[in-house]
Amino acid sequence: MKQHVLFVDDDTNVLEAYRRGLRDRRDQWELTLIPCSLLAWDTLQKRSFDTAVFDVRMPGLNGIDLLTRVQQTPTLRDMPVIIVTGEADRSLKRTALNLGAADLLNKPIDREDLLARLNSTLRLKAAQDALRVQNQLLEHRVRERTAQLVASRLDIIWRLAKAAEYRDEETGNHVIRVGCYSRAIARVMGLDAEFVDNMLIVAPLHDIGKIGVPDSVLHKPGRLDHREWRVMRKHCDMGAEILSDECRFKHVARRFGADSQTLAHVLPADDPVLALATSIARGHHEHWNGAGYPHGLQGEEIPLEARIVAIADVYDALRSERPYKQAFSVDRALSILAEENGTHFDPAVYEAFLLAFDEINALESEFNDAAAPLLSSQVHDEDECLVC
Length: 388
What we know:
The protein is an alpha/beta fold. It folds into two domains: 3-135, Response regulator (Rossmann fold); 169-386, Orthogonal Bundle (Hypothetical protein af1432), CATH 1.10.3210. It has 17 helices and five strands. It has helices spanning 12-21, 37-44, 63-72, 90-99, 111-168, 174-188, 193-202, 215-218, 226-233, 235-243, 249-255, 260-266, 272-283, 304-319, 330-340, 347-355, 357-366; strands spanning 3-8, 29-34, 51-55, 81-85, 103-106. It has a five-stranded parallel β-sheet with strand order 2-1-3-4-5, sandwiched between helices. The termini are far apart. Mean pLDDT is 86; it is low at 371-385.
């Protein structure tokens, strides 16, 4: 494949001399000779060259001006430029080199000097191109490996969420729906894309702390007494502890020499995803009016992500059939949410839920366990249906 060389000089005799002097390189190089610097600049923006030779003295744009534009243009910056001048001005040479000229030539030009400099700049360009291709290949491999690690991490998170779900005997797709609903609400609220996508990942972990609740409490068929409620309410802090960045597994992994690069991807310091999951696990049972648990937070003291998951979790619980109840109808579930607006739920999040409801309704159908019947609930206490 031929290499492309651009010559720019307002003297057509000089350009013709270039053509004659390099005619024996026609099999290797394709020469483009332009007598106008403005036309040359227009050509540079449309075509790529492996190297260029600019005369310093030209009307319109001189060689230094043209070099400056090349260096300021990201797509042209890697093209080596040789500056040609008839002057022995050291200041001019320093200026050209400081601006990024690859080499300098003084007129009259010796053919062997020209060939040596062109060969040098073309080798430089070939090396730069090879390095760029290699870097692109490495970047592609890093992206692939990172995507694999992210996918594995996401898979582990969702499997952990499913483990908590099975422990609680909740319906099969509950954690998936809570994640999808939370993402839909966050998007309607205009939150940034990373937060929105992370809600899909971490909202399913909201009840991970129930892994630590004794079976006698978690699976009790009747009403919980005061002692049992105290135990049940600990699942929020237990979940936060499980997900916290203080997890000792990191220290164990480092102690026994886990690969540092892999560890940096799988267990990054101050992981924002796990921080979000921790916040949700701890705060999704707090109420807007301060009547929730475990810490009685009120209003905006409750993290936004927890306020979002709270309404997503309650709606799905109302609409789901459980061992102790049948599913609420859509109308009844929405009526209960409306009653709890401003007390249990953040009014802004409630409004976002309503705006996202068409999507939420479609997601419920898509991830339905088995077409839950549209019946009224028959539970021991209506308050208990709003999720433990």
